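Progress note, sequence design subtask.
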């Protein structure tokens, strides 16, 4: 049962029925992490575009499903936060986000908005030729200059002619808008008020302020996902306050 796990222990972020069957497909190694939702779970359990694994495989065989602009053929491939999932033949486009309970939610978007993707930089390395490679949270990499830093977010083009070209940049710094993607404040959107460095290997603390209520709360930098410089910028990502 290496490709499956019991539904009772499936990640809560999948938000699937627990007792309809014993097992559910396990996420394959690849983009994001083990909490990423397998394509089969998204199509069948989450969205209802298929009723069985066989129907899911037929959709994928016909190359009808795109994730971040590329056809998907592996039903176990994981999809996660800020991925763009598209079914162009029926005119359906979605951005994957997290709700306030930490569960995956699929936000319908226009086809034009499905041409860009927001990605968090988790690390950067120097590769052959002295070029800088940005390593992104979804497992992909892009070449860039030294302007960008870990924990920043970048906006990438998904158009075939300039795929993964950097279109915009949201630095990880006080004053910019962020979404919390883990912990007790998961799903909250607020402005960073203060970043508090913590010595050692412990994650830095981040204080955020809700623009509407003025209330402040704290999380760790691991859970921070930069989404813009100003509050109105969050509207284009389909984020609900």
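Output:
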């Amino acid at each position: 049962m290496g490709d499956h796990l019991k539904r009772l222990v499936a990640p809560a972020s999948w938000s699937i029925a627990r007792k309809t069957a014993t097992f559910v497909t396990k996420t394959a190694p690849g983009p994001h992490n083990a909490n990423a939702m397998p394509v089969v779970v998204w199509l069948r359990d989450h969205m209802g575009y298929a009723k069985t694994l066989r129907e899911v495989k037929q959709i994928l065989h016909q190359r009808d499903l795109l994730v971040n602009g590329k056809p998907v053929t592996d039903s176990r491939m994981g999809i996660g936060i800020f991925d763009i999932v598209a079914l162009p033949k029926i005119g359906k486009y979605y951005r994957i986000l997290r709700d306030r309970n930490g569960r995956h939610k699929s936000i319908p978007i226009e086809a034009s908005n499905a041409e860009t993707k927001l990605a968090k930089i988790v690390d950067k390395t120097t590769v052959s030729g002295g070029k800088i490679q940005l390593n992104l949270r979804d497992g992909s990499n892009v070449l860039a200059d030294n302007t960008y830093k870990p924990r920043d977010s970048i906006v990438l083009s998904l158009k075939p002619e300039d795929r993964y070209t950097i279109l915009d940049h949201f630095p990880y710094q006080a004053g910019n808008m962020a979404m919390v993607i883990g912990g007790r404040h998961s799903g909250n959107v607020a402005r960073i008020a203060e970043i508090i460095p913590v010595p050692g290997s412990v994650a830095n603390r981040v204080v955020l302020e809700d623009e509407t209520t003025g209330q402040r709360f704290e999380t760790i930098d691991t859970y921070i996902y930069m989404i813009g410089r100003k509050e109105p910028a969050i509207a284009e990502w389909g984020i609900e306050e």
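Residues 81 and 97 are 5 Å apart (CA to CA). Work on this subtask will continue into the next period as scheduled.
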